[in-house]
Amino acid sequence: MTTMSNSDRRQRPGSKESHRCSWGPYISAITNRTTNLFIRGGMLFSVGVFLALVLNLLQVQRNVTLFPPDVISSIFSSAWWVPPCCGTASAVIGLLYPCIDSRLGEPHKFKREWSSVMRCVAVFVGINHASAKVDFANNVQLSLTLAALSIGLWWTFDRSRSGFGLGVSISLLATLATQLLVYNGVFQYTSPDFLYIRSWLPCIFFAGVITMGNIGRQLALYEHSFLQQKTHQD
Amino acid sequence: MISIIFVSRSLDALRRSVLGRPVLPNGRELTTPTRMTLREQLRKKISAAFYRHGLLCASYPVPIILFTSASILTCCYPLLRLPLPGTGPVEFTTGVRDYNVPFHEPQGDLGERPDWYHGPPVAYIQQVLVKAAVSPWDSSLVPVDVFRSPLGKVFSLLEEIRNHVHTDSSGIRSLEALCLQVTGLFPGLRRMQSVLPEHGCLLVSPGNYWQNQRELFDSDPDLLRTIQKHEPKGLHTSATLRDLLFGVPGKFTGVSHYNRKRVVTYTITVVLSHYDASFLNSLRNRLKQLHPSANCSLRDDHMVHVHFKEEIGIAELIPLVTTYIILFAYIYFSTRKIDMVKSKWGLALAAVVTVLSSLLMSVGLCTLFGLTPTLNGGEIFPYLVVVIGLENVLVLTKSVVSTPVDLEVKLRIAQGLSNESWSIMKNMATELCIILIGYFTLVPAIQEFCLFAVVGLVSDFFLQMFFFTTVLSIDIRRMELADLNRRLPAEAGLLPQKPVPLRTREVPPPPRPSPHTITLQTPAFRNLRLPKRLRVVYFLARTRLAQRIIMVGTVIWIGILVYTDPAGIRTYLAAQVSEQSPLGDHGGGVLPPHLPVAPVFRGGDPTSTLSIHPAPDPTTLPENQSQGHLGPARAGRLPHAPPAGPQITWGADDEEGWRRLSFRHWPSLFSYYNITLAKKYISILPVIPVTIHLNPQEAIDMRHPQDTRHPPPSIPKVSADFQTDLTLYKVAALGLAAGVLLVLLLFCLYRVLCPRNYGQNGVAHGRRRRGDLPCDDYGYSPPVSEISPLLLRGHSMDIECLASDGMLLASCCLAGQIRVWDAQTGDCLTVIPKLGRSISSSGCWEQRDAWDSLSGAAESECADPSNGCDGALEDECYPLRRRSAPSRPPLFTNQPDLTPLIDTNFASLPPSNVSTPPRVGFDFGGLVERAYTEHEPPSTYPSPSSASSSPHSCTLLQRSPSLGDSTGPSTQDSAVGTQGSGDVSSVWALELRGNLIAAGRSSGKLELWDAVEGSLRCSNEDSVSGITALAFLSNRIVAARLNGSLDFFNVEINKPLGLLHRGAPCRGSVPPSPCYSSEDVINCQLTRSVQCAHHKPITVLRAAAGRVVTGSQDHTVRVYRLEDSCCLFTLQGHSGGITAIYIDQTMVLASGGQDGAICLWDVLTGSRVSHVYGHRGDVTSLVCTNSCVISSGLDDLICIWDRSTGIKLYSIQQEVGCGASLGVISESLLVTGGQGCVSFWDLNFGDLLQTVYLSPSGDGQGVRQLLVLDNAAIVCDFGSELSLVYVPSVLEKLD
């Protein structure tokens, strides 16, 4: 049996999740529900932090033309607490989505595959990329384009009403919170163009919420299968 | 007899399944005049078109692939005209005289002008190239003098340049007005602050090292250290400060102790923001006047405009790399889903090729129609791939794979295509709509992206339809061929019906070393059964693909590093390109410094060759010194004079000395002032040559006191050039050493992490013959553990019913004898002799036991069901052992073809057996005898012999796993004809819980026996219809009867005294089974009887998780609640009688029917979850695990299905007749029965782990029933014996 699980491990390298699947004896250690929750939260958190850093870099590029030789420091050019905040938010969102799904009793069935999730993440990064790189004529155009792209993202990868509602409400809340922070002087936009940031912020938030929800659901799917396995073993 | 009926059934089912093939959706259906909506019409049309297209693709694969390749190449052809991507600067040369600042708007025909050449440049660069030497050289001079005084001259020159004022009619102009005013250094550059000018004119010269102050220079004791101080430590690749200030590459400056030419070269770089020809001319004339360069023939009529492309920094690379990583993850996760094809990776490659070439096609088409791409291709590429996606490809594959396997490849492709046609078209329409919306955002970049995406989508669709479909058809055809190859030897080996375990024909049956040893089947056989995924792993391990990929990646990485190194090959390439391009070519060949090509000299001065050839012969040095009295000015004028002192010569490479600099020179200079040159251009004006000759006296005057103290350098035999080369070699050697170290480290790590040296002993090609080490290709050898089967002997005839609760094991043979065994030790605990008989017949039993002891081995022969015993056997069926030691193989080989004898019309048959005279005191010995005699000529197989007094039960209650072979009736529905006299009935069903044995009889009687004491505890005879199946859960017994009714019994225990628990059976993980002590009064009460549960006989009964599930001949499955025997659902979905049901504690319900279909049901809602056709013929047994469903059918195929998707993962060809016996020991261990052996399979990969032979002699009694106990033991019947096999490795695992 151990050799079997060995070969299993050897056979599917690459994805953390399938790794977790094949950690035969290790499963018993993590079948605990709360542990699982923490693992999921941790993964979501790291994904959120990573995305925040990368996307921040994209935005920085828009404003700064050249970089000093020590470029790497510009990754961390924004306030230190921004990536952890993003990570926490993404963890919360990623856990909230499957939770709401189970509460509403309508399990999300649409495109539950990792390839679809990857596609979603890629489109999300692409939206960010577009907002950072493409020169728009005015902010209204930028907002409309981004809104259309975000809704396209939702339609392509989510298509659940709960997802849409949650996305809209969270993005509105987040925008409000950011504005409050700015008015209180805690946080400053790097760009002098104030309206520019305000115009893309809600759309980016919405797309991010959808993306993180997608990841969270997919992770929860794995946990679900774990629990099934566990009950079966019992 | 029953088996004959089974055969007829199965043939019937087979025929039905062939005829009942889904109607092919060909175009003819369109003509049906039924009114349908437009959508449906469209759908039909699309699907028909796709069907025809699929047929076309699968019929002519090679021409179509050729056609697609040709079209791809055609579409990619315009790409050849695109310039190669790169970030090297581009040049454009214009004349100085008629130079005007280009206009902002490109106007008219530009001629040769590049499109970036409009508007003013960022800056004009004016370089003053100074060559200075102390001449004549004096032996009293120290090496420092070579550069100290020449460098000192820079301050006066700077003064001159700064103060130069040009006055003419338009006014007075000074440098201050024209030069580029800088405001401050980039904030991050603290270390540059002291050196680079921070405000005012951007004027760069070596004087910056000393803040342009002569005093600092004069007081500097060690000039070289000052210069070195600002050099970055370590390996530098881009422009250094030294290059910036000197304006010529470091090794050409001559500022070193080892300068043999004793000529110092440096530039003063003036950056101008405005171009004023008259000012520059006056400056040039002034400088030439001050320091005439006699033999200088540099051209000064061309200015070069250098355009810089966008830079890619690390900061830009990180998001790019992220997107690429996401892209690869996407591709990985997508291609992982491809399954059930011949070559998974081949298809994945085809998919990626499809997407990539569609992108290339779209770019090529766009270029063809004059739409030049302006977007950065590398950036948008991942998004394009994601938008186009691999989904369609995967959907196509899945759909084609899920078509019935028995169809022709052409039809499979066509069906698969037409099945998915609608969704493909819908998706494509949706995507086109989304892109159309994107097009109307009216943002140019997005519009361009959308245009590309549209063209890409269309070309991708084209490629999918033609290229990928064809590749898929080829792949599937290959798979079928492989299947054929696999099956042929198997069937060839089986044709002679040898009872020995199946082996491939080319391998002689190996000597089995000793009984009960584990022997693996031939690796050739095993390899064929490997799933594709495992083969990929094998392949990887065998070819060490991963290592090689890593190596190739490292090489590529190093190559990229070398290429992107600005000082490296790329500059060289850029120089080459600019040399070849008409733009950069302007007469004077710009030679890369390290090209050993003879330079072209304009002046034709023969002495100037010396300046090019480095390192004059050191032996000539003394002579030079002795002859060094010639005046410096005359040195150039006297060309024929022997070279005297340091010669200052001007060669063609001085004309554009900046070319020798790193191409990042100017961008980095400007970037220090936060000015980007990306996508902009600068204009470089012709250099102003300045020649300075200094007297030795001047040099001595300028000496710093410490200079003389500097030890005279021991002039090494190597030249300075060679020294720089040496550093290069050092770096290379260091890099090589580091690389070797890294490889060693990785190797060690690899060995530590992977101690198994796979690949070493797995010399791939030679497939191991049987008898070699049981070792896989990748070195994995299954644990050789001692699995020795325990034979439980005692039954006189074939085991018919088996029941176990984990601790005890009850078996009932055809003779009606029930034996209870200890499942741990294999001891026979109890023998319950003749069920339903009075004690008076006990005498017979002794006689029978004597029989047993007499004829040990031969006993099993009588139990062979093909002897005809099975049909009409009842409990008294005693074999007549006239044929002593009959050989089994002839029995099997002479097996008659039963199909022509099938006759299901039992009503017309005379009840012949009733009148058979009894022999040896037993009622039905004659019957058996006749069966034997009639079997001697095999063609007259006794079909009438099975016609017992209750023929209907035989006809209806069929379930047999095999096609006329040794399998007999199995547990529940073993139909044994009731005897004509009726007083004795046979056991049809057996259940064991705690120490109670529930036995259902053909007479409809339910009996409860004490397993330990062998006493009848109670019985119930409410109904006369035979009990076909029993379920015993906690204190309830459910009995299914032949007439379709379902009875629920309640077992009541009245404990007279303190209850005594039987220790052993109550522990363990079994659901709490009731333990009854012998004092208890047990009462079996019929609580409810569902009279018409099914219209036809109930064939299967399963109970778990508080549910009772019945399957019947009437094609339905019913789910009852155990507590109140209320029918919850009637599940309809099969088109044949139900033959197998599986339900477990997690409420997983699966059912299989005679139609070969397997349905998965949701027990909570009663809905059908999935429905697959898996077998040709009946599904004989079903087991589910967490991830998969395992089914076996009459076709002797064991299929493993993915439970969630319903996709067939793989199938295992069983030996004939052993298809039904299978069990799952753990989540990944499958056990199947074979001819005299049981095999263990790894469920994940379909890999045969072990085969355990059950008997020493190894004759092939088929294992027909297989029961997995909770303690990881399996019990199988083996003729008249039971075999108990422990699987120790599984035990370890479970612990």
From TrEMBL, chain A:
<feature type="transmembrane region" description="Helical">
    <location>
        <begin position="78"/>
        <end position="97"/>
    </location>
</feature>
<dbReference type="GO" id="GO:0032937">
    <property type="term" value="C:SREBP-SCAP-Insig complex"/>
</dbReference>
<comment type="function">
    <text>Mediates feedback control of cholesterol synthesis.</text>
</comment>
<keyword id="KW-0812">Transmembrane</keyword>
<keyword id="KW-1133">Transmembrane helix</keyword>
<keyword id="KW-0753">Steroid metabolism</keyword>
<dbReference type="GO" id="GO:0032933">
    <property type="term" value="P:SREBP signaling pathway"/>
</dbReference>
<keyword id="KW-0443">Lipid metabolism</keyword>
<dbReference type="GO" id="GO:0032869">
    <property type="term" value="P:cellular response to insulin stimulus"/>
</dbReference>
<feature type="transmembrane region" description="Helical">
    <location>
        <begin position="195"/>
        <end position="215"/>
    </location>
</feature>
<feature type="transmembrane region" description="Helical">
    <location>
        <begin position="164"/>
        <end position="183"/>
    </location>
</feature>
<keyword id="KW-0472">Membrane</keyword>
<keyword id="KW-0153">Cholesterol metabolism</keyword>
<dbReference type="GO" id="GO:0036316">
    <property type="term" value="P:SREBP-SCAP complex retention in endoplasmic reticulum"/>
</dbReference>
<keyword id="KW-1207">Sterol metabolism</keyword>
<keyword id="KW-0256">Endoplasmic reticulum</keyword>
<comment type="similarity">
    <text>Belongs to the INSIG family.</text>
</comment>
<keyword id="KW-0446">Lipid-binding</keyword>
<feature type="region of interest" description="Disordered">
    <location>
        <begin position="1"/>
        <end position="20"/>
    </location>
</feature>
<protein>
    <recommendedName>
        <fullName>Insulin-induced gene protein</fullName>
    </recommendedName>
</protein>
<feature type="compositionally biased region" description="Basic and acidic residues">
    <location>
        <begin position="7"/>
        <end position="20"/>
    </location>
</feature>
<dbReference type="InterPro" id="IPR025929">
    <property type="entry name" value="INSIG_fam"/>
</dbReference>
TrEMBL record, chain B:
<keyword id="KW-0677">Repeat</keyword>
<dbReference type="InterPro" id="IPR001680">
    <property type="entry name" value="WD40_rpt"/>
</dbReference>
<keyword id="KW-0256">Endoplasmic reticulum</keyword>
<keyword id="KW-1133">Transmembrane helix</keyword>
<dbReference type="GO" id="GO:0045540">
    <property type="term" value="P:regulation of cholesterol biosynthetic process"/>
</dbReference>
<dbReference type="InterPro" id="IPR000731">
    <property type="entry name" value="SSD"/>
</dbReference>
<keyword id="KW-0853">WD repeat</keyword>
<dbReference type="GO" id="GO:0032933">
    <property type="term" value="P:SREBP signaling pathway"/>
</dbReference>
<feature type="transmembrane region" description="Helical">
    <location>
        <begin position="312"/>
        <end position="333"/>
    </location>
</feature>
<dbReference type="Pfam" id="PF12349">
    <property type="entry name" value="Sterol-sensing"/>
</dbReference>
<feature type="domain" description="SSD">
    <location>
        <begin position="316"/>
        <end position="474"/>
    </location>
</feature>
<keyword id="KW-0446">Lipid-binding</keyword>
<dbReference type="GO" id="GO:0005789">
    <property type="term" value="C:endoplasmic reticulum membrane"/>
</dbReference>
<dbReference type="GO" id="GO:0008203">
    <property type="term" value="P:cholesterol metabolic process"/>
</dbReference>
<keyword id="KW-0753">Steroid metabolism</keyword>
<dbReference type="Pfam" id="PF24017">
    <property type="entry name" value="Beta-prop_SCAP"/>
</dbReference>
<dbReference type="GO" id="GO:0000139">
    <property type="term" value="C:Golgi membrane"/>
</dbReference>
<keyword id="KW-0153">Cholesterol metabolism</keyword>
<feature type="region of interest" description="Disordered">
    <location>
        <begin position="606"/>
        <end position="643"/>
    </location>
</feature>
<keyword id="KW-0325">Glycoprotein</keyword>
<keyword id="KW-1207">Sterol metabolism</keyword>
<dbReference type="InterPro" id="IPR019775">
    <property type="entry name" value="WD40_repeat_CS"/>
</dbReference>
